[in-house]
Amino acid sequence: MWRPEVDVGPVRRAAVRRVRRERLRPLAAVAVVLGGASGVLAPTLWWAVGLACVPLLVVALVAVLPVRLVEWDVVLAAGARDVVHCEQFTDQVQRRRAGRLCVHFDAVRRAVRGLEARRVAQVERLLWRALVALRDSLAVRDALRSAENRPGLAAAIAEPTRELAELDRRLDQFEAALRIVVEELDPELAASALRRVAALDPL
């Protein structure tokens, strides 16, 4: 998910430039070597110049070929505060939780298309904050899982453990509220459920 206010266009162009550089870097090195070798082995000066230019022309042709991006290329070109992607979640449980939140929001957006646009935008901002908090909690979760059971450690990890439990509780509440909007068949009740979601604070 992209941050609601972000302009993806410049990020995509930066990704194209990065992918093109990575594609050309090994080719350019090979072209220089082949060009030098061809120049040394050529029988005449003109042959040397001509053969040395061939690899460089190949590199130039490759450079103008269109770049095919995959989603991860664009994510890598973006800042951490501009996008949250499933590949950033090393914890499978939290990855599935983030996936469910996004699926429910997409269903909400389709269900209320053309209606309650302002509230949908508010829910999108709440979802963004929730996903960032969930991703940022991964380091704490990993540290707590790997913490050794030493005397005095229980007191040190008690506070972050409580904070994670509270975050999980709020995220579960947010997910349940989104699911109610999706499952509600009555338009008025769905709109009311959407207003309740927009009033929630997942953090």
Number of helices, where a helix is a run of at least 4 consecutive DSSP H or I residues = 8
* Percentage of residues assigned to helices: over 70%
Characterize the largest beta sheet: strand count, sense, and whether it forms a barrel.
Answer: none
Percent of residues in beta strands:
under 5%
Task: Quickly give the structural class.
Answer: mainly alpha
- The run of helices and strands is HHHHHHHH
Structural overview:
By secondary structure, the chain is an all-alpha fold. 75% of the residues lie in helices and 0% in strands. It has helices at residues 8-41, 45-64, 71-77, 92-111, 117-136, 138-146, 153-183, 187-198. The model has no long low-confidence stretch (mean pLDDT 76).
Defining traits:
mainly alpha; about 200 residues
Sequence-ordered SSE layout with sheet pairings:
Blueprint: H1 8-41, H2 45-64, H3 71-77, H4 92-111, H5 117-136, H6 138-146, H7 153-183, H8 187-198
Helix pairs in contact: 1-2, 1-3, 4-5, 4-7, 5-8, 7-8
In short:
75% of the residues lie in helices and 0% in strands. By secondary structure, the chain is an all-alpha fold. The longest helix has 34 residues, at 8-41.
